[in-house]
C-alpha cells in the first residue's frame, strides 16, 4: 500500500464544543480517505499519532507529517495515521483563561478515548492480524490512556510511545492503571520525558495540571511493559521530541 503525501487520518473534529467540551455529535469518527482504511489487510501494522493541545486541523496535519518523516528516517516503513481531535480550545493562549481552556482540553481528550477505542475495536474486528501502535504527544497521552480504559480487557494495542506527556506522574503506578497496561498492550509502553521541558514545568508550577509524567517521569512502580527514557529536546514541541527519538518501535 502506498501512502499519499497527505497522511491518512481518523478525525473527530467538530464533535466537541471548544468552549465547554460538551459533546456535539454522537458519531464515532470520520475517516480520510476511506479507501485507505478499507485496504488495511495488505499491511502488517500501522502507527497512529495523536497530537497535543492547541492544534487546529492544520497544526494536527503538520504533527502527523513530522511523525511520518521521523519514523521513516528510523526505518519504519509501515503506514502512519493521524488522529485529529478538537484540541484548539478557546482562550488557551490567554493567561486569564488558560486554566479553563486546559480543563476543557483535558475533558475533550478524555472523551476522545471512546472515539479512538471504537476505531481500534472496529478495525481489529475487521482486520484481526493488523498490529496497531499508538504515539502521543503532550495531551495526546490523555487520549491514549482514556482509550486503553475504554478497551477494558481487550489487548488490541501493540505498543505505546508518549512524548512530553501531560498525564499525572502517579497515574501509571496506580493498580488499576497497571492492570490496564497488562490487559490492553501486547508489547510495551514507553514514556519519553524531559526535566528541561519548560511548558510542562510552567503548567505544573501554575497548577494547570498535576505533576506531569512527561516532566519528571513516573512516581512509584509500574509493570515490566512500562519503561521511560529521559531526553533533552530543545523545547516542548513535537518536532523537538521527534528529533531525539533514536529508534522505533
Features of this protein?
249 residues, alpha/beta, Rossmann fold, 8-stranded mixed sheet, 8 strands
Protein described:
The chain is of the alpha/beta class and 249 residues long. It has a single domain, classed as Rossmann fold. Helix content is 37%, strand content 18%. The protein is built from 8 helices and 8 strands; from the N terminus they run ββαβαβαβαβαβααβα. α2 links the parallel β3 (45-50) and β4. α2 (57-73) packs parallel to α8 (238-244) and α3 (98-126) packs across α4 (140-151). The longest helix is centred in the middle third of the chain and has 29 residues, at 98-126. It starts with 8 loop residues before the first strand and ends in a 5-residue tail after the last helix. The mean pLDDT is 94.
Short description:
The chain has one domain: Rossmann fold (3-Layer(aba) Sandwich), CATH 3.40.50.1820.
Task: Provide the spatial order of strands within the biggest beta sheet.
Answer: 2-1-4-3-5-6-7-8
Largest sheet data: 8 strands, mixed
Tell me the overall shape: globular
Number of strands: 8
H/I helix tally:
8
Overall mean pLDDT: 94
What is the subunit arrangement here?
single chain
Share in helix: 25-40%
| Distance between the first and last residues' Cα | 20 Å
| Order of SSEs | EEHEHEHEHEHEHHEH
Low-confidence stretches: none
CATH topology: Rossmann fold
Strand content: 15-25%
Please state the structural category. alpha/beta
Number of domains: 1
**Can you tell me the CATH class?**
Alpha Beta
CATH architecture: 3-Layer(aba) Sandwich
Radius of gyration: 17 Å
Keywords: Membrane, Transmembrane, Transmembrane helix
Subcellular location: Membrane
Membrane topology: Multi-pass membrane protein
Organism: Candidatus Nitrosotenuis cloacae
